[in-house]
Amino acid sequence: MKNVLSFNGKNALVTGGSKGIGRAIATALASRGANVCISYSRSDDAAGEAVKSMSGYGVKAFSYKIDQNNVGEIPGLFRFAEENIGDIHILVNNAGICPFKNFFDIDRELLERVWRVNFESHFILTQLVSKRMIERKIEGRILFMSSISSRVGGEFQTHYTPTKSAINGLVHSLSIVLGRNRILVNSLEPGTILTDINREDLSNSAKREYMERRVAIGRIGTPEDMVWPALFLVSDENTYVTGTELLADGGMLVNLQ
Ligand code: RM4
């Protein structure tokens, strides 16, 4: 039994990989030998810094700018990743948005944007990547970033939480489709992790204190807290876990009283 996880010889595509949880997972894969392509939607500087950092581990690292709201651009991301890192063994569908909003103020454009970025774009990318895995007989690993919010609600997340529940439903069905090809499909459910997605929301001290009190271990999570749960699920050492969700929330969900 190996005592460290190695990703030598693996090629990984991580969406939303220039910051936050995606950056932490992408970096962890690169530091353990994987070639990595990340997608990002905003900061060229952040993406460039991430690529430079990952390249420092002696692996191939690339970034591709895409707004995953524009789902027609997803095939371009897939082609770029294949052209630059080769056949994809690991797909981490991480990109996501959550603009906190009052239910009655959410218009169709925002509702559809959140749906496209958080669900539809991942569906399309996963179709492309998994079809190639089957063609190449790659017993790949696919990880979707779901959330504790797939299981519980948020007053200002009525457009968001359903996308995370939908991700879990997709994982259940996709694990059947891809299981016969030994491609394992799971979702990770982070609790409240301090990243750009909620920095403004958690800048409210009362909200931050409430969320911290909810966490059994007493602190908001960090992107690094998500690394080992993710690495296990996408590793070759995972031989039998598929079609399920791994909750990584510091005990927040069960901490009612
Ligand atoms: C997560 C969870 C967190 C929230 C972020 C935006 O899924 O709901 O509590 O801060 O989304």
From TrEMBL:
This protein's UniProt keywords: NADP, Oxidoreductase, Rhamnose metabolism
Keyword Oxidoreductase in record: yes
Protein name: SDR family oxidoreductase
Transmembrane residue ranges: none
Gene3D superfamilies, per database record: NAD(P)-binding Rossmann-like Domain
Pfam families per record: adh_short_C2 (PF13561)
Family membership noted in the UniProt record: Belongs to the short-chain dehydrogenases/reductases (SDR) family.
GO BP annotations, alphabetical order: fatty acid biosynthetic process; rhamnose catabolic process
An example molecular function term from Gene Ontology annotations: quinone binding
PANTHER family, per the entry: (3R)-3-HYDROXYACYL-COA DEHYDROGENASE, SHORT-CHAIN DEHYDROGENASES/REDUCTASES FAMILY MEMBER
